[in-house]
Amino acid sequence: MNYLSTRGDRTPRGFSDILLEGLAPDGGLYLPESYPKVDHATLGRWRGLSYADLAFEILSLYITDIPADDLRAMVRKTYTPAIFGTSEITPLKALDRAANAPDGTDVYLQALSNGPTLAFKDMAMQLLGNLFEYELGRRGETLNILGATSGDTGSAAEYAMRGKQGVNVFMLSPNGRMSPFQQAQMFSLQDANIHNIAIDGVFDDCQDIVKAVSNDLEFKRRCRIGTVNSINWARLLAQVVYYFAGYFQATSARVHATPEQVSFAVPSGNFGNICAGHVARMMGLPIRRLVLATNENNVLDEFFRTGTYRVRGSAETHETSSPSMDISKASNFERFVFDLLGRDAARTKQLFKTEVEQHGSFTVSADEFAHIASFGFVSGTSTHADRLATIRDTYRRFGVVIDTHTADGLKVAREHLEPGEPMLVLETALPAKFAETIALAIGVQPDRPAAMRGIEDLPKRFVVMPVDTQAVKTYLSANI
């Protein structure tokens, strides 16, 4: 399996090459030359596998340059009850059929947040840490990871990479814009290979710096820069697995001659989580619709409603109560647009490198916009009032406490329910990470694991920098 760039670079590269590289040299994102297809027989064969063995089956379709026994050992080391709390790894929780749910419609929460940092990013990041350590050891090399986070990617990456041989982490975050819990998870780490940089800006400024450094090929190669953001294909690939796992759980009680369809609702800011669902659907998983939920920063909802992708500047990026989605430039979106355009790399490059960079927006043609329906996407927006109401309603009726981002997903999911079609809402974080808003909604503080109690009071280790790519480069050079 070789990989190509969304912007036209077709130099043959295997998985291990792009694992350590992140962005392609032409600034594009990597995708496989084609998506492996799974049929009804394959789905039947995979049903009943443990999560780790299911992950091996899916990943081995894309990772052909790591020996199968080594890959199997890595996924079995990663996806264990000791790390994720349950044997199912991503268990479903059924919500009773509500008055506003059509008859026969089951609504589930798929728990993705039982890992070390209480967020869905652990699902991929724990594997990524093992993959990095394996490949760097095989090559006898080191890697300096540069990432950007709006809240959860940073802690998931740092907890996965702390103590790993040959790996340093430099994580950029928007200064003062994460929840106190999210900030404490990152800044309280004292490991020598972990470096936190708080940028005086918004997440998009952090992401722009990461891309600018990655696009300086001489600096990137000299300093051995890699990425853990979802621009790294390996991270997105690991997320594909839980769509299959959720599908099998939701349809386990049903036996059909042909696969039953389900839908997934996904809170989305950077388009990585739902892009993994797009890949699963392209592979042949019977996903009818991918329901994209945004918060007040509704750039993606605007595109799926109108065909116009219009990025916002820092001044227009709202600070919300679902802060991990306070994003106005969805870096993974280019992968979907590449597929939407029939994998036309020249057109993709023109839209993202020329139109977005020069004009801040693009609009697809009427024919291209009409084609979106064939990919199953629908969308909607949730506001602060909506998420408070959804958190309160879910707690009152089901005794279930959900976080603010999951509330956005559930609110939009309810707008797209159809009879007889299971709807799986991807839970993105545990409510403890956003305690202030949860308490505002339901009047009680959410529980948190014992290991995380008092984390805000621990000593913090971080530096503050302006929105300045050169300043970050200087810091990197001095600390690798």
In the predicted model, the low-confidence regions spanning at least 5 consecutive residues are none
Helix/strand class: alpha/beta
> Mean pLDDT, rounded to whole units?
93
Approximate strand percentage: 5-15%
Strand segment count:
15
CATH topology assignment of the domain at 88-118 and 234-448 = Rossmann fold
Assigned CATH class of the domain at 88-118 and 234-448: Alpha Beta
Number of helices: 20
**Could you estimate the helical fraction of the residues in percent?**
40-55%
How large, in whole angstroms, is the Cα Rg?
A: 21 Å
Instruction: Please tell me the CATH architecture of the domain at 88-118 and 234-448 by its name.
Output: 3-Layer(aba) Sandwich
Overall geometric form: globular
For the sheet with most strands, the description reads: 6 strands, mixed
- What oligomeric state best describes the polypeptide chains here? single chain
What does this structure look like?
The protein has 480 residues and is α/β, with parallel strands linked by helices. The protein has a domain at 88-118 and 234-448: Rossmann fold (3-Layer(aba) Sandwich), CATH 3.40.50. Helix content is 44%, strand content 14%. It is built from 20 helices and 15 strands. The protein has helices at residues 15-21, 40-46, 51-62, 68-78, 81-84, 121-139, 152-161, 180-187, 203-215, 217-222, 233-250, 272-283, 299-306, 333-340, 345-359, 366-371, 384-398, 404-414, 435-442, 469-479; strands at 3-5, 30-32, 92-95, 107-110, 143-148, 167-174, 194-199, 225-226, 262-267, 287-294, 308-310, 361-363, 377-381, 423-426, 463-465. Strands 3-4-14-9-10-13 form a 6-stranded mixed β-sheet. The longest helix is centred in the first third of the chain and has 19 residues, at 121-139. The protein starts with a strand and ends with a helix. The model has no long low-confidence stretch (mean pLDDT 93).
